[in-house]
Amino acid sequence: MLTTHPFDDDKLREECGIFGVSGSDSAAALVALGLHALQHRGQEAAGITSFDGHHFHTHRAMGHVAGNFDSDSVIRSLPGSVATGHVRYSTTGETALRNVQPLYAELQSGGFAVAHNGNISNAMKLRRDLVRRGSIFQSTSDTETIIHLVATSNYRTLLDRFIDALKQVEGAYSLLVMTPEGMIACRDPLGIRPLVMGRLGDAIIFASETVALDVCGATFERAVEPGELVIVQGTEVRSIHPFKQQAPRPCIFEWVYFSRPDSIVDDHSVYSVRKEIGAQLAAESPVEADLVIPVPDSGVPAAIGYAQASGIPFELGIIRSHYVGRTFISPGDNVRHLGVKLKHNANRALIEGKRVILVDDSIVRGTTSLKIVQMMRDAGAAEVHLRIASPPTKHSCFYGVDTPERTKLLAHKLDIGGMTDFIHADSLAFVSIDGLYKALGEAQRDARPRYCDACFTGDYPTTLTDQDESAEVDQFALLAERVN
Amino acid sequence: MLTTHPFDDDKLREECGIFGVSGSDSAAALVALGLHALQHRGQEAAGITSFDGHHFHTHRAMGHVAGNFDSDSVIRSLPGSVATGHVRYSTTGETALRNVQPLYAELQSGGFAVAHNGNISNAMKLRRDLVRRGSIFQSTSDTETIIHLVATSNYRTLLDRFIDALKQVEGAYSLLVMTPEGMIACRDPLGIRPLVMGRLGDAIIFASETVALDVCGATFERAVEPGELVIVQGTEVRSIHPFKQQAPRPCIFEWVYFSRPDSIVDDHSVYSVRKEIGAQLAAESPVEADLVIPVPDSGVPAAIGYAQASGIPFELGIIRSHYVGRTFISPGDNVRHLGVKLKHNANRALIEGKRVILVDDSIVRGTTSLKIVQMMRDAGAAEVHLRIASPPTKHSCFYGVDTPERTKLLAHKLDIGGMTDFIHADSLAFVSIDGLYKALGEAQRDARPRYCDACFTGDYPTTLTDQDESAEVDQFALLAERVN
Amino acid sequence: MLTTHPFDDDKLREECGIFGVSGSDSAAALVALGLHALQHRGQEAAGITSFDGHHFHTHRAMGHVAGNFDSDSVIRSLPGSVATGHVRYSTTGETALRNVQPLYAELQSGGFAVAHNGNISNAMKLRRDLVRRGSIFQSTSDTETIIHLVATSNYRTLLDRFIDALKQVEGAYSLLVMTPEGMIACRDPLGIRPLVMGRLGDAIIFASETVALDVCGATFERAVEPGELVIVQGTEVRSIHPFKQQAPRPCIFEWVYFSRPDSIVDDHSVYSVRKEIGAQLAAESPVEADLVIPVPDSGVPAAIGYAQASGIPFELGIIRSHYVGRTFISPGDNVRHLGVKLKHNANRALIEGKRVILVDDSIVRGTTSLKIVQMMRDAGAAEVHLRIASPPTKHSCFYGVDTPERTKLLAHKLDIGGMTDFIHADSLAFVSIDGLYKALGEAQRDARPRYCDACFTGDYPTTLTDQDESAEVDQFALLAERVN
Amino acid sequence: MLTTHPFDDDKLREECGIFGVSGSDSAAALVALGLHALQHRGQEAAGITSFDGHHFHTHRAMGHVAGNFDSDSVIRSLPGSVATGHVRYSTTGETALRNVQPLYAELQSGGFAVAHNGNISNAMKLRRDLVRRGSIFQSTSDTETIIHLVATSNYRTLLDRFIDALKQVEGAYSLLVMTPEGMIACRDPLGIRPLVMGRLGDAIIFASETVALDVCGATFERAVEPGELVIVQGTEVRSIHPFKQQAPRPCIFEWVYFSRPDSIVDDHSVYSVRKEIGAQLAAESPVEADLVIPVPDSGVPAAIGYAQASGIPFELGIIRSHYVGRTFISPGDNVRHLGVKLKHNANRALIEGKRVILVDDSIVRGTTSLKIVQMMRDAGAAEVHLRIASPPTKHSCFYGVDTPERTKLLAHKLDIGGMTDFIHADSLAFVSIDGLYKALGEAQRDARPRYCDACFTGDYPTTLTDQDESAEVDQFALLAERVN
């Protein structure tokens, strides 16, 4: 229903953003601000849980943070100096409120709330075992598995039970947990999904991206380390590393598309990396042309980089409507095909008779690329060259990113020549995988790569238990109640 | 928010009605009709669950059945030939949707849905034990306890697990359970809450009252027996009695107030019993007067009985608004006190100068009696005599009826003289407990009474475990998440 | 959407109720209370206009007074010591808010608001003339005609303009007008529709029925006289009679059905008149039987009258659901036919094997009578005799009452024998027209009848201009904008 | 509630956009598309009226086109081959639906609907005269004046009445009128507000901007001429010029800010003009710096022009949230001041230590400029120079643009030095009025200027009757009904 990036129909989608505050009188209000700044990481639903020293308070809603979490009455209904929040996309069709995080359970030790960015890749197997032993699940979320593992653990303290649970799960997780004793922030041993820590006065803040710290006026302190648990009680902080150490593999797509350009991820400015990818593209795949035109908005930094490196002028050849926050559905069959122009319109006076270079960040299915190349031609472009600021996306992600089935990925189906024909471009080029690593300051991608780049290379850094048991997964779906 | 009986502010409230259908193509539609006919048993929320052979489908809503369960789209969203439904009041302040029944869980054996009329009097104790062993509760409802007992039972078949669970609970329960194998209807060993079985063509129907069978055009077959489990698979029915047999003690207040006058409860017409109580009252407590006036609407049958027995004319001395379905809140402080007349208005032309006998079914706090006696005096009544068609209500109910704290019951605080003064009546009389049993065809209440009359006598037929541990109950409430 | 009288599908419907207050700090709150008490006169929409000495404030809503006019915020949005309100049915299908009264216009003299009960029978002709001269209508309401006549009058003072306007209209009107100078209440020269005046402290109150005064705690002062204008400025009152005097003809159906039984209309208690009609019926059309059963709720007073006169016991043979405030729509074709039992259910235990006399207030189309006779037979009645507390309804009303087309009136199509067959009763009788006048204290209906009884007799007391020009009316409807 | 341009709190706001179609089976769907493309011209409310040969159909809604006019059910409710639509801001606080256009009236000649972009500058005077003669206004809109002038005109044909009406009004108006005979498009004699004509197959289309033609796939035909009436019946078109000819004065602010960059207004590409203004600014007011940063989004074209002319790199120094479609209200007093960063965040990694040139299109109150300069300093900018792509805005507009009171215009209160101090910039410069005319291809602004530039120069091209009578205007406002 809600879209944001103008041509986002053909993007990979980050599935979640998380944000937590401990030690502030305005905890819930800060979480609302932080989630709003992370809205691009999940626009389907949002939730905030606070703890006032006695009770946990939760508000969940389908839709955006704005409109659902910005009234005084909502914020007042979330009292306490500790709060966490979550924005999400769903991977399955299940969009019910009961799946909206933070999830909550009453354990023997008291309330337990959790917000999760990532995906547990053996969640279905664990769930079957738990149900067999009498656990009753409230949601279809993989995150709930962690809670039941804590509830049924044989360890005594809550912290030991939590670590016991984490040692049984595989996959990607950045987690914010709230208990009556305090908040725990943690990141999986490979650090696949991001998580940073900041401070605002005495308060401790955790967020998926630094931009959420900026918006709150907080200072960035450091990234939470892969495999680290940061334990906060009030404003006191301690850190433990209960897992066997491994070489980190953070997701490289955060720089390509997921994170906002004004965020700094693992010491790299996202904007600078994107401009540098554009420069690499200009060096690797030059072409004679009159104009460099970004595909708005995510293609802009790479297009500026390409234009500056090539000396070809950067121009706004595609004007996007300011009103994409709410999608306009073209009514009536006769006018349905006009939809694409509602979001973008070619700047015909500029383009007519010109050779244009379009710069975009990625191609997933290729549907949008096809339309936008055609839009340039309809506006009278003499030549249309498409440059993509990432390598070809050939593999699905199982770590908390919404990817289409592999068979729908254009780069899985076609080689460069086939893709060029499909989108009717005069030329098409992707940055190389080494070019991408160069833009991040590496010499090249080597034998022990520093990032998770499985979507480009198929090199998955963990086992994928549930993928090998998908038949049983279907059986489970059969049993689920449908709440209408 | 919604009220129905005009003077219902001062009534005991039945907490639930249940209705189930097996073997009909219109299962959900029939359940909606049946729940509408049972609406007086619970007006706060309603829910229906259906099973289509593969999936369970549930729709829950706060508010009435009408408006929430009568659209084609809602009924279409509840496919299948088996369905159960529930209407409820809440006893606690917790009115969230997650407490609205039928409750549902995915067990190892598949889906499990339950609708419950009654109250488990050791639910808090059982809950603490279950949480200690790792169970996570979704609701604050006592009914969920039964589901977790089933999930964690060591027996093998679902039926054995269910019986194992029931043997651990104490209190009052009429239950409708749905599993992929079929429906189970059961009534606690004392049969405290009612449950009847009927047929509509091949379909089997269960309902809290016969009026719900009438509305569907179904024929009444028999009451489910105390301690009986009726197991229905499609249209096949079998019955088991797994509990040790006990003398039944059905709730006598069903005839006094809860059930509709057109229902037949355990072979007694409710209308006839109420008229007979009125006749007993006329015999026990006669008075010279000009008019017999019912307190609308629940006092009407007893008033007719009183008038016929005494020969004093029955007249409508209180006119009630037709618009009580939705409460009008008098706005503004200056006019707030006028509220009572919005629902009822004295028929001044009739009453002026007359000696009137008011007949009502019961007195709980006495607040309404006070107002209505005053209303008669304001309209010019020469004398006002109040006759109550039940004995004094002196004790709380713990079997699924919403009773105020005992200290708020007028008959607990005052004797007849004190009550007469409190409500400013010229005279006040209640039917005797023996008179009540006589209206039901007994010679008198004897040493082994045939009904649960604890609200009048304090003679509770079961132990009340949670009542003796109420301190711990409070601690539990402390931990609950508040969903805003 | 909303129904109230249980069997009201087959009733004539009063189209409006009006209520006004001058000189109270709680003017709007009192109007809300008063309208709630008049809800039975119009349940489709409601509106209140207040004047604070500077501005007029209006709130209009589709639906009931309760829920729309009982929040503090709505009442606070209607400040001032003068306020009027209106509840309505619509006669046409046009249910838009713009037709909801009070209507408002800015004239040269300032704001002008009007609430109208009745119907202008030459409204279409006047409208055509006004449009021809350049007036632009906002609504399709006949009431707006009066406002344009005032706006375009050649007289100088507002009062003279208003009288000039009224002299051009024909038909039925009780009006409450608000201007910056004060309030004007008036009743057409025949007094067809009711209007009474009361006092609450210093405040002056006008209402369609006395029950609205009761609810506010106001005292009844007198009826506004036919042809009278009562002019109120603050709490000062004066009266003028600008029309040529005529013999009044108030609507007799107010006693039969429209007014509440606790209202006093023109010195007659509605309850007493209805009981007396029942007694007349018993005298005119006796029958041997076991039970007298009212068709709830409007048949109750006449049934009590019939029972007392005949000595046959009054019993509740039809139990109505308490939940008729909101109509339950039976979902699904298979269960649609069960709808009637949702509202009423036969008290089978009472009726089985008995000879019953049903008493109802009127028959319009006969559809409900047919169903209710059948319901008695299904419940095992040995004989079913129907007695109607009004003469046969044979003619349409053009004075503000919603009547079906004449060809749909059962008494227009069939004689008594035909009607008896149609509804499958063992016998059917209506009270005679003279019996009806007797119940009102007259010897009989004479040559100069004291009431408008056109629906029974066809004797219309005014000309019916628009009825003779209905072709043109249709053309006008053609031009109307449809606001979707 | 809804905002669009990121820093639009401090912009002048065009008040309306209009769009009409004649001769298409998809008329209403095309109008919905067209209005969506014109959403930037009015975001408060929208309306569409269609004519199906017999009836007019209207749908109006507060809020955006998307969400209100894009459902099939809404479009189906607007049948017919002729339709017009309107998007609006309100100038007054009156945001009621009754002011939402198209306005509609039933005249003697039949239905009459009108959509208006502009403002009638003698509307209050005309209104007083009309009310004096008996006209009753439905709205507080100046547009309704035209309708009443038509209704009361002494001419015979509707066309003559319409021309008679237009000759009495002064000010700015582009109008689309629908009658049963067809559509009339017209533009005031000075052509102050824009209006263009296009074709889509046989259908004739009118729109405020060419971008709305693009979105529908229509071809641009020509601008409607100042003083021209284009009369369309089905797909037949004829043109008349009933007014005395005058030199046109179209609004120059359309190129500065109002129109979309991809529109062509009077043969000038808006994007090209804005880039050229940027180049003029670079020539008139150069400064040594490291980066040219646009104030998003409206400053982008001028910033590109400035960067290309100066050779200083164009960079994204301010990142705006994608989620400005719906404003997030910072909840709670403690975090309220953080609001500005919700919409924009400085790209700190880029800015730190740099000398930056900010380019924006205009300054109205100066509040946003102050914040954005501070944002640059907080991010570590070494110097901040602000360049404005229009002359200082010193005068209010009375031709359909929402301007603050003159005393609130920063450029009215302060000279350049004062403004520079106020916003804490290192330097501030505006393009000169001659520079602006140069960007439009003129040598300079001469004695008979080709544009209305009154907001910069105070040189109003018409009389301003109502401005001289504002005391009376207030009195009128006193009388208005407030619909709550």
From TrEMBL, chains A, B, C, D:
Catalytic residue list: 16 (nucleophile)
Glutamine amidotransferase type-2 domain location: 16-235
Sorted UniProt keywords: 4Fe-4S, Glutamine amidotransferase, Glycosyltransferase, Iron, Iron-sulfur, Magnesium, Metal-binding, Purine biosynthesis, Transferase
InterPro entries: GATase_2_dom, Ntn_hydrolases_N, PRTase-like, PRTase_dom, PurF, PurF_N
Annotated Pfam families: GATase_7, Pribosyltran
GO molecular function, one term: amidophosphoribosyltransferase activity
Pathway field: Purine metabolism; IMP biosynthesis via de novo pathway; N(1)-(5-phospho-D-ribosyl)glycinamide from 5-phospho-alpha-D-ribose 1-diphosphate: step 1/2
Positions with a binding annotation for Mg(2+): 298, 360-361
Catalytic activity: 5-phospho-beta-D-ribosylamine + L-glutamate + diphosphate = 5-phospho-alpha-D-ribose 1-diphosphate + L-glutamine + H2O
UniProt-annotated binding residues for [4Fe-4S] cluster: 251, 397, 452, 455
Enzyme Commission number(s) from the entry: 2.4.2.14
Keyword Transferase appears in the UniProt entry: yes
Enzymatic class: transferase
Binding note for cofactor: Binds 1 Mg(2+) ion per subunit.
UniProt cofactor(s): Mg(2+); [4Fe-4S] cluster
Record HAMAP family: PurF
UniProt record similarity statement: In the C-terminal section; belongs to the purine/pyrimidine phosphoribosyltransferase family.
Role this protein plays: Catalyzes the formation of phosphoribosylamine from phosphoribosylpyrophosphate (PRPP) and glutamine.
UniProt protein name: Amidophosphoribosyltransferase
Organism: Sphingomonas longa
Gene that this polypeptide is encoded by: purF
